[in-house]
Design goal:
The protein has 12 helices and 7 strands. It has about 350 residues and is an alpha/beta fold. It has a 7-stranded mixed beta sheet with strand order 2-1-3-7-4-6-5. The protein is flat.
């Protein structure tokens, strides 16, 4: 059917189309594009105006795309730690004895005398000292340690009584003790760092409440006080300054034993042999107690109403309880740093 419809050959159909030839492009046929200055001049000539105009096209890419801005470098923030209140020294007042008049001021680091109150540390220290002070010497004899024969005291059966072995049985009088106490150690462990911190906390507590008096020298009684009147003189001194029993008693701390002070507190009382040995090292009366640095503990610092301590004894106590501090925070190193700052 298709061959019948198209009777003319395909070659004749193709020859009937007229080909359109485009002219070739060359420099002679193409018009030269006018620059921006030519376009602006043409515009001025057309409007008969000599006013300057802005160019239509601007080949400056900076006017289209803004130049990249350099990021501004922020200054580095350095961390400045807040001031430590424990680095500020405190000044204690040194007093004379027996007048207790102020003489001068002595600086001390706040890590030693301005610590906050820690009741938990004080409790642990007092319990540790109490456990260490227990003798634990109670001793009873077991049935194997009681003197006596091992013969059976009555037959096993036929008597109607309970079964018994030898006479050392705990059920008989004179026999051993079944579960009696034996010598043991009641001491409980406490880290040295914690104990030293508790010690300085007790001193700081007394100092913060105004209950610690620091003496410039040893508390020796004046020479004009006779040996027979030392007890009465010391009692009057304590009551006059409100340091006696009505106000909670006073603890005297010295670096060495002061015989005149010890005698004034002990008086002429007579004690038994064991009690006398104890009182030879401790001066104690109804109004006050005297101890050396080697005999005092945390409980003694907190027990009485006032603490009167010699400056040398205070330094000795503080230097002996610094295990929780760094070498630069200890008392001797701190004082060397203070001297360098003054120079």
């Amino acid at each position: 059917m298709a061959s019948k419809r198209i009777s003319a050959p395909a070659r004749q159909l193709l020859n009937t189309f007229t080909h359109h030839r485009q002219p070739t492009r060359s420099l002679t046929t193409e018009a030269t594009p006018s620059p921006n200055t030519t376009l602006s001049q043409t515009y001025l000539d057309a409007h008969l105006s000599s006013a300057p105009t802005e160019p239509i096209l601007n080949d400056n890419p900076s006017s289209i795309i803004p130049p990249p801005t350099q990021p501004q470098r922020q200054p580095q923030k350095t961390y400045t730690p807040p001031p430590n209140p424990f680095h500020k020294p405190t000044h204690i007042t040194l007093h004379a004895f027996p007048t207790l008049e102020p003489l001068s001021l002595a600086p001390y680091p706040s890590t030693h005398l301005l610590l906050p109150l820690r009741k938990d540390l004080l409790h642990r220290a007092v319990v540790h000292e109490g456990d260490a002070a227990r003798q634990g010497s109670a001793n009873t004899k077991h049935r194997s340690e009681v003197h006596g024969s091992g013969r059976k005291i009555r037959p096993q059966k036929g008597t109607g009584s309970a079964r018994l072995g030898d006479k050392k049985s705990p059920m008989l009088k004179g026999g051993g003790v079944a579960f009696g106490p034996k010598p043991r150690d009641f001491a409980t462990g406490l880290q040295r760092r914690v104990y030293d911190l508790a010690w300085r906390t007790a001193l700081s507590y007394r100092y913060a409440r105004g209950e610690m008096i620091v003496l410039d020298h040893l508390p020796e009684l004046p020479g004009e006080v006779s040996e027979g009147s030392r007890e009465r003189w010391m009692r009057d001194l304590l009551l006059h300054n409100r340091l006696g029993a009505p106000d909670g008693r006073t603890l005297f701390l010295t670096s060495d034993k002061v015989e005149s002070l010890w005698d004034a507190l002990r008086g002429r009382k007579t004690y038994g042999l064991r009690r006398k040995k104890i009182m030879d090292t401790i001066g104690e009366s109804r109004h006050a107690r005297a101890l050396t640095v080697g005999e005092v503990d945390v409980k003694d610092l907190l027990e009485l109403g006032r603490v009167v301590v010699e400056r040398g004894a205070l330094d000795e106590m503080l230097k002996a309880h610094e295990s929780d501090l760094t070498p630069g925070e200890r008392l001797n190193a701190w004082r060397r740093g203070q001297r360098l700052e003054v120079v």
